[in-house]
Design a protein that fits this description.
Helices cover 48% and strands 18% of the residues. By secondary structure, the protein is of the alpha/beta class. The strands form 3 sheets. Strands 5-4-1-6-7-8-10-9 form an 8-stranded mixed β-sheet, with helices on both faces. A hairpin with a 2-residue loop joins strand 2 (13-18) and strand 3 (21-26). The chain is globular and about 70 Å long. It starts with a strand and ends with a helix. The structure holds GDP-alpha-D-glucose. GDP-alpha-D-glucose binds at residues 30, 164-165, 234, 270, 272, 305, 307, 348-349, 351, 354, 371-376, 379. It is an enzyme of class 2 (transferase).
């Protein structure tokens, strides 16, 4: 019986060492929810790194046995692989390049070597589980070489690849010394998906100019197969966020927050710590807003959550310092005994508290410099049961292609962000509700389950099309 194999760098699980031994916490992330309906069925399996380094083989064996009961197969990485493949090539070479921060990119041969080794390691793990006829779905930029490695082993199988981060224009992508190997790696897939048409278009243009293949109509002809490239904007588990907003736990938190911030307009900002998210620019715009609109002093609070991420990488440490300094400067310049302009949290929150924050926020300020999609803005929309609230959204987020009823801004234009904040804070309720309801219809319909279904159907379709083209 053919099965589906999902592969991502991280398994949807956190392993913790407790006094009673190893404990496993399953991820609540959107991808895990969407794919949960697939990988938990029959013999289907999810393959990935469990996120931690294990010192001895006995512990690895235990993790392997425990996870296999939950349809997961772990790929173990050594300390140097974590450093060079994950923190190195994935996060210091590919991440900055793909987010148009190529000045931050590190071109290090040792990183590239580790990236190839670990992609091969993933291939070996897949080969332990795979049989002819299986469908394989590979996720994201840490595994760009895997489609081709698997194609060599399983020439006839269905291989899908989805990239969760942007694909940059040819002029930026070409800067990578390993550009051709990377593209050839991706071209092992039958279907290559991105969040937006622009990402797909950039990818096709790189394939045409670097590899020299014909890419007409989003179909790449490599002489053996036709590979389809398309946009699949990812959605969220809408019902989950709507139900959370209605839960007694969230309602209790909402009361608590409202009592703590009486008569305040709340502007919400939530991101992982990352330079692609535009956090310093957002703070500068807020500072400018307070200077230009003194009538709002004492009446507006920026609730800013920054979730710790990649703190082993130097650029992220520097970014944290920049944010700390800006928050300190703004709070010390503007605060009064009874009011603080910014509530800044550098930690992650339980999902019920996140939900309560989405509910109480009057404005979500989402201003990434670049973002593949951005799910935070969709979660904010799903949480607004009273249909009130305004989304200010960067044009550089994939989500902006769908959410035309947000106030769209260029994150480099601080004056425009200031004007948008003012517009949002003074927007009549009827207009807020009209815009919000439009966005809710869209986010509800194009949810995570729809995304999974569309991708899987398209993969099936291209396999059938390949066969009919081969016999023509
Ligand atoms: C990559 C791409 C693309 C945040 N703080 C807390 C928390 N979160 C959750 C949010 C949301 C997720 O983290 C962040 O998702 P994003 O989409 O905004 O960003 P990335 O992590 O960069 O994801 C991105 C995505 O992949 C999917 O393809 O949209 O462009 O960069 O779900 O809710 N969750 C909890 N506590 C927190 O404090 N529980």
């Amino acid at each position: 019986m053919p099965k589906t194999i999902i592969i991502s760098n991280r398994l949807p699980i956190k392993v913790q060492r407790t006094e009673e031994g190893l404990a496993y916490e399953t991820s609540e992330g959107g991808l895990a929810t969407g794919l949960g309906s697939i990988y938990k069925q029959g013999h289907n399996v999810w393959i990935g790194w469990p996120g931690t380094y294990f010192e001895d083989e006995a512990e690895e064996k235990q993790v392997h046995d425990d996870l296999s009961k939950q349809s997961m197969l772990p790929v173990f990485l050594t300390e140097s692989e974590i450093r060079d493949y994950y923190e190195g090539f994935s996060n210091e070479t590919l991440w900055p390049t793909f987010h148009y921060f190529s000045q931050y990119a590190v071109y290090e041969d040792a990183y590239w070597q580790a990236y190839q080794t670990v992609n091969q390691k993933f291939c070996d793990a897949v080969m332990e589980a795979a049989e002819p006829g299986d469908t394989i779905w590979i996720h994201d930029y840490q595994l760009l070489l895997l489609p081709e490695l698997l194609r060599e082993e399983l020439p006839k199988s269905s291989i899908g690849f989805f990239q969760h981060i942007p694909f940059p224009s040819f002029e930026v992508f070409r800067l990578l010394p390993w550009r051709e190997q990377i593209l050839r790696g991706m071209l092992g897939a039958d279907l290559i998906g991105f969040h937006t048409y622009d990402d797909a278009r950039h990818f096709l243009s790189s394939v045409s100019r670097i590899v020299g293949l014909n890419t007409a109509q989003g179909l790449i002809d490599n002489g053996y197969r036709h590979i389809m490239v398309d946009a699949f904007p990812m959605g969220i588990d809408y019902d989950k966020y709507a139900a959370l907003a209605d839960s007694p736990e969230t309602k209790a938190k909402i009361e608590e927050y409202r009592a703590a911030l009486p008569d305040q307009k709340i502007v919400l900002s939530i991101d992982r710590l990352d330079y692609s998210k535009g956090i310093p620019q957002r703070l500068q715009a807020y500072e400018l807003f307070l200077k230009e609109h003194p009538e709002f002093l004492g009446k507006v609070t920026l609730s800013m959550l920054v979730v710790p991420s990649r703190d082993q990488v130097e650029k992220y440490r520097q970014l944290k310092e920049t944010i700390d300094e800006l928050v300190g400067r703004i709070n010390s310049s503007f605060r009064t005994i009874t009011w603080n302009p910014i509530q800044y949290f550098y930690r992650s929150f339980p999902i019920e508290e996140l939900s309560a924050l989405y509910c109480v926020a009057d404005i979500a300020l989402v201003t990434p410099m670049r973002d593949g999609m951005n799910l935070v803005c969709k979660e904010f929309i799903a949480s607004k049961l009273d249909h009130k609230g305004v989304l200010i959204l960067s044009e550089m987020a994939g989500a902006s292609r769908e959410l035309a009823d947000a106030i769209l801004i260029n994150p480099n234009d601080l004056g425009q962000i200031v004007r948008s904040l003012h517009e949002a804070l003074t927007m009549p309720e009827e207009e807020q509700m009209l815009r919000m309801e439009h966005m809710q219809d869209l986010v509800r319909r194009y949810n995570i389950h729809h995304w999974v279904e569309i991708f899987m159907n398209r993969l099936e379709y291209i396999k059938v099309k390949q066969m009919s083209m081969a016999t023509e």
